[in-house]
């Protein structure tokens, strides 16, 4: 099972002192969080993608490319990549490039984005969210799996004889997750392709997660990728920990009370009862997290949100220390002991290369405009 | 003799509240009218005051907490609804409106509703026609023709209630009972849920069609 952190990349004032980090500080904080995640033994760092203040991560592959150079083992991912407003051609190119630079330590999560005004900035309309996700992803897959693509669709200019470069590393596209809170069409999409399904599992009651995952598993089996319990499921989660649970509650409360999304609404106690948020001791986080399995089954990836709502970097890094030392090692052991042998792990690049048969150089060599021959064919004569 | 469920929604804020008093009168009369038509009734009362914070939380978080969800299920699952609000600033109260703001848009389609309103002066007596009916028309609920408005002076008659108000309560209750008995029973809280979003998700082959 993979464990990691996912970040929204929000620039939020620290409610305890009123100080708002600069964009520069927030970007460096995201880098520091990713490096720390590797240092403490986590597996995954995933960044959000946003194109409006107060968020900084508008250019995920720039950040992940930098992190690829600064890390050895960490799997670099997204939460989420906007499949609706990004050009699928650019996604295909950017993430294939990232795959090469990161030695295959890349996967990504598709999401639609729920901020209405963003769509028109990129020439789209939020009311077309689902059809955009369907069409753009279908094209993205072709761009990664077919060397030369002829394509026409509703939302993008047609392609004639187009080759997306670089070709995916070893001829194997990055593994893809699809994230959605409550759109069953997206769970259906993940199931149809045999891709992973991720539920953000924060800010909402667990019933939404439970129903979406159950539906995805059932449809995964229907589409012939394996049994329902072999489907690839990822969950989010939000935690804040201190050795003494009273200290955790006391320290986190001002951040909770003023947080974006749910702040100025329910109390911390109500929200921890109604949603998967856990504020308490590492042991409480272990117990709550193990309980997720009771309603989604054996799953493959657990990402925690730890850097939200204006928490200072120092505090976030302390949270990562606690996760790495006291929480994740126990969760790894306990989840592994519970997982039946026929339930797979989340596929890595290496797994996907093996599944494909072998690594293959997928380079597409250009043809001469006049002769129609490639440089290789000419030199072989 | 079958049993019908009647949900009573009262947006009164004080205790005792004349809004709740009117709701109780309407309820008693409706139960009697149902019995006269050969139907038993189970009554479940939702006092919105108790859910004021739950409703504000829902506006911010986007979901109903456990307590509010139970109230929503009660109203949505009922065979008939009695909805009573005080008049605030020439309309239903914000609390009353918020409850309907967080309902699924189809949640009350076809539900028979008796509308009631209270105010300190009879000058607000058309609030049911001008403010409440459009709201329930939007929700595609079936509001009975007689709405019952009660101003302070209406509580002054013999037996605590003005004879004309008593007459309107009787007539409205009869209209609600007629509508309720003319429909199949829904089975209460568990009997009717909002449309299941997972019920007919198109297969991906259909979503992909033409792409």
Automatic annotation (TrEMBL), chain A:
Cellular component terms (Gene Ontology): cytosol
SUPFAM superfamilies: Bacterial luciferase-like (SSF51679)
InterPro entries: Bact_Lucif_Oxidored, LLM_FMN-dep_put, Luciferase-like_dom, Luciferase-like_sf
Keywords: Monooxygenase, Oxidoreductase
Signal peptide location: none
Domain Luciferase-like: 1-294
MF GO annotations: monooxygenase activity; oxidoreductase activity, acting on paired donors, with incorporation or reduction of molecular oxygen
Protein name in UniProt: LLM class flavin-dependent oxidoreductase
From TrEMBL, chain B:
Transmembrane segments annotated in the record for this chain: none
InterPro entries: CE1759_FMN_reduct, Flavoprotein-like_sf, FMN_Rdtase-like_dom, NAD(P)H-dep_FMN_reductase
GO molecular function: oxidoreductase activity
Domain NADPH-dependent FMN reductase-like: 6-155
Keyword presence, Cell membrane: no
Assigned keywords, A-Z: Flavoprotein, FMN, Oxidoreductase
Keyword check for Metal-binding: no
Record protein name field: FMN reductase
């Amino acid at each position: 099972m993979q464990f990691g952190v996912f970040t929204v990349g929000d620039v939020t004032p620290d409610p305890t002192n009123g100080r708002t980090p600069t964009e520069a500080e927030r970007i460096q904080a995201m880098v520091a969080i990713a490096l720390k995640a590797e240092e403490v033994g986590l597996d995954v760092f995933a960044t959000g993608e946003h194109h409006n203040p107060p968020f900084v991560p508008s250019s995920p592959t720039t950040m992940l490319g930098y992190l690829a150079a600064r890390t050895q083992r960490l799997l670099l991912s997204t939460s989420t990549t906007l499949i609706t407003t990004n050009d699928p051609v650019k996604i295909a190119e950017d993430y294939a490039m990232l795959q090469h630079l990161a030695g295959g330590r890349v996967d990504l999560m598709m999401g639609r984005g729920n901020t209405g005004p963003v769509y028109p900035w990129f020439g789209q309309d939020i009311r077309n969210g689902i059809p955009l996700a369907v069409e753009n992803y279908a094209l993205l897959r072709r761009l990664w799996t077919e060397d030369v693509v002829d394509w026409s669709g509703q939302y993008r200019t047609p392609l004639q004889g187009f080759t997306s470069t670089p070709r995916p590393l070893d001829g194997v596209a990055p593994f893809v997750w699809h994230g959605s809170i409550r759109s069953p069409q997206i769970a259906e999409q993940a199931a149809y392709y045999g891709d992973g399904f991720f539920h953000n599992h924060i800010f909402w009651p667990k019933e939404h997660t439970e129903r979406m995952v159950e539906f995805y598993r059932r449809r995964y089996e229907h589409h012939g990728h394996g049994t329902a319990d072999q489907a690839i499921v990822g969950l989010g989660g939000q935690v804040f920990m201190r050795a003494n649970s009273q200290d955790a509650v006391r320290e986190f409360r001002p951040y909770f009370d003023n947080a974006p999304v749910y702040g100025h609404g329910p109390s911390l106690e109500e929200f921890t009862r109604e949603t998967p948020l856990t504020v308490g001791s590492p042991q409480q986080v272990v117990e709550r997290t193990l309980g997720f399995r009771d309603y989604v089954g054996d799953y493959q990836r657990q990402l925690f949100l730890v850097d939200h709502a204006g928490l200072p970097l120092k505090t976030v890094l302390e949270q990562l220390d606690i996760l790495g030392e006291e929480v994740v090692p126990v969760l790894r052991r306990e989840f592994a002991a519970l997982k039946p042998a026929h339930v797979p792990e989340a596929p890595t690049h290496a797994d996907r290369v093996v599944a494909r048969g072998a690594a293959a150089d997928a380079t597409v060599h250009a043809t001469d405009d006049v002769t129609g021959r490639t440089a290789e064919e000419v030199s072989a004569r | 003799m079958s049993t019908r469920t009647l949900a009573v929604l009262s947006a009164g804020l004080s205790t005792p509240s004349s809004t709740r008093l009117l709701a109780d009168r309407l309820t008693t009369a409706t139960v009697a009218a149902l019995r006269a038509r050969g139907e038993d009734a189970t009554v479940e009362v939702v006092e919105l005051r108790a859910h004021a914070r739950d409703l504000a939380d829902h506006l911010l978080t986007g979901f109903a907490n456990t307590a509010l969800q139970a109230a929503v299920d009660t109203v949505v699952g009922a065979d008939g609804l009695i909805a009573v609000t005080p008049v605030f600033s020439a309309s239903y109260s914000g609390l009353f409106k918020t409850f309907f703001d967080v309902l699924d848009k189809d949640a009350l389609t076809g539900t028979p509703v008796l509308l009631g309103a209270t105010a300190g002066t009879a000058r607000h007596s058309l609030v049911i026609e001008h403010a409440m009916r459009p709201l329930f028309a939007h929700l595609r609920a079936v509001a009975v023709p007689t709405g019952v408005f009660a101003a302070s002076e209406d509580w002054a008659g013999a037996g605590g209630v003005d004879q004309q108000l008593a007459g309107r309560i009787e007539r409205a209750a009869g209209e609600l009972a007629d509508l309720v008995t003319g429909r199949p029973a829904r089975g209460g809280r568990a009997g009717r849920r909002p449309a299941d979003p997972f019920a007919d998700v198109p297969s991906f082959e259909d979503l992909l069609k033409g792409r």
